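W.,

You were right to be curious about this one. When I first looked at the sequence I had no strong expectations either way, so I just let the prediction run and decided to look at it fresh. Below is the sequence, 234 residues in total, followed by the output.
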Amino acid sequence: MLERGGAQGDRAFFLVDERGRMINAKHHPALNQVVAELGEDGRLSLAFPDGGRVEDEPRTGEQLQVRFYSLMRPARAIDGPFSQALSDHVGAPLRLVTFDPGRSAVDRGAQGAATLLCRASADALAAVAGREAVDTRRFRMTIELDGFQPFAEDAWIGRELRIGGARVRPMGNVGRCTVTTLDPETGEVDLPTLEILRELRSAAATSEPLAIGVHCAVIEPGAVAVGDPVEVQD
């Protein structure tokens, strides 16, 4: 379900360090090894590569002031076994937190509530890398589209797309960071993504550097499912 704040349940939680700064796989690549699932019953589970698993209701605890990118914002700690399990896994103190209801941890806010990537764009990157394909999970996009030319999404900025029951408007390109160089399962550096994008996209007129994919505002909320048609509005 795409809502104005993003996909329902997407980025409902995030991690901070002992100083209250937001942390991701750029700081601790081993986080890529953890598979999180938020069930329809509201229970959160974390599966670890050694076969371990923690599961509980993510109950909110004390209020904190955290640094989310460059801004200080109020957040709530999540009680239960999650923070300790994640800290043990990466070997550093981490804390699982959430924003108040109705707010998700989307870095671009409502202007980037959802992200789109054409599969052909990832294939173009794979070709430069000398690979048959790349695992697109490394790009962490909301929706992946088939049937378009490479980087067709660049031309959609400012237009509208009907995707299933939702309508979105691409607002800009998604510039990439070092997280995309990490294998999405192991957390190991296995692809020079940024160097490839610099070679492949240096002449492209993108709104952010080293870009692949676009970020979108959700104009009309609705359900989106695998196989839904996509219509680019004039």
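Here's what jumped out at me. The longest helix spans residues 119-129. And, maybe more interesting for your project: Residues 20 and 66 are 5 Å apart (CA to CA).

Coffee later to discuss?

I.
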